[in-house]
Amino acid sequence: MEGTLQKIYLDPAHPGGLGSVSKLRNAVGECTGVTPSLSSVNEYLLAQDVYTLHAKAAVHFPRNRVLVSGIDKQFQADLVDMGEYAEENDTVRYLLTCIDVFSKYAWVRCLSNKAGLTVTKAFKDILSDGRIPVKLQTDEGTEFYNKHFQRLMSQYKITHFSTSNETKASFNRTFKTRMWRYLTSVNSRIYVDVVQELVEAYNNSHHRSIKMQPSAVNKDNEKTVFIQLYKLYPQKPVCFKFNKGDTVRISKLRGGFRKGYKQTFTDEHFTISRCIARDPPVYKLTDYAGELLKGTFYEPELQKVIIGKNKVFKIEKIMDRKISRGKKQVFVKWLGWPEKFNSWVSEKDITDA
Fold first, then answer.
1. How does pLDDT run across 31-88, given as a tens digit for each residue?
2. pTM for this structure?
3. Which domains does the chain have, with CATH numbers?
């Protein structure tokens, strides 16, 4: 049966070729008169690079909620690129946005560049307002991960960490919408002189999620805000798509892996080391060397892979050659794998396939 699957799936002229599980299954049934099980076809495809490297990768999908217990417990910061408007706005190219996840209170600072020292000074100015977070969440950009910014984090004893999140993205959209509306109303591209007015208006307007103004949230009404913000629902049983020990690829649409390739998942393989019961569930991964990856991964960001006994790994280039104990060996860089996995292999094991 595997031979038939292989023949049909790799035939670009066949209606069942290079397509989905169901199309291949139906094509085999029509060809042989026996329809294979869905699981057997799926297992075959999970062992094919041509399928797993180009599987459909999702960008928009449900993510875990960020639960914060009170005001000033966690801020989120980000940079908004405004380079298109720099000439009309005193060379301001970026907006540093910061939001308190709990109260939704926000700050914005104008920056001429995103150098580490520039961002650090701007964030210190935000802290000078008197509100110091316990934690700060940002992306992994060098504008935040540099000696100046990290020194500031140590000075104020702020725990700095990085994951993707939706709260800051939501504020950025809200703030920019207000800004675009203003610019349209005055038929102008100059916004720099009204940035703080727009921020103040946002902080003093009713926020849908907390049912009050961000500026009105304080220690006295934290409990009321918490109840409103994190309404508790009956917990659903968690169903895991993957199991501990499964081999997977990571979506190239996930931040650090996006490099503009036409394939949607990494060549490199990873192993699921832990399944975490959240809604939706997430996973911890290790690389081929057993090193733990930073952060957690959602199911739509992963593609299961089955490593068959005849699995062939592609070589990007041969970097060196030697003869060891009379046998020819080559030092290779594996296609799509980090350089730390470069290795010596026997020359006779290399094929042109």
1. 888 999 999 999 999 999 989 988 888 777 777 777 788 999 999 999 999 999 999 9
2. 0.61
3. 2-46 (no CATH), 74-229 (3.30.420.10), 247-305 (no CATH), 315-349 (2.40.50.40)
Do 48 and 65 meet the contact criterion of CB atoms below 8 Å apart?
A: no
The gap between the terminal CA atoms of the chain, to the nearest Å, is 23
Q: What is the pLDDT of residue 309?
A: 82
Distance separating alpha carbons of residues 134 and 214, to the nearest angstrom = 18
- Whether a cis peptide bond, with omega within 30° of 0, leads into 280 is yes
Contacts of 162 (CB under 8 A, 6+ apart): 137, 138, 139, 140, 144, 145, 294, 295
> 3-state SS string over the chain?
CHHHHHHHHCCCCCCCCCCCHHHHHHHHHHHHCCCCCHHHHHHHHHCCHHHHCCCCCCCCCCCCCCCCCCCCCEEEEEEEECHHHHHHCCCCCEEEEEEECCCCCEEEEEECCCCHHHHHHHHHHHHCCCCCCCEEEECCCCCCCCHHHHHHHHHCCCEEEECCCCHHHHHHHHHHHHHHHHHHHHCCCCCHHHHHHHHHHHHCCCECCCCECHHHCCHHHHHHHHHHHCCCCCCCCCCCCCCCCCEEEEECCCHHHCCCCCCCECCCCEEEEEEECCCCCEEEEECCCCCECCCCEEHHHEEEECCCCCCCCCEEEEEEEEEECCEEEEEEEECCCCHHHCEEEEHHHCCCC
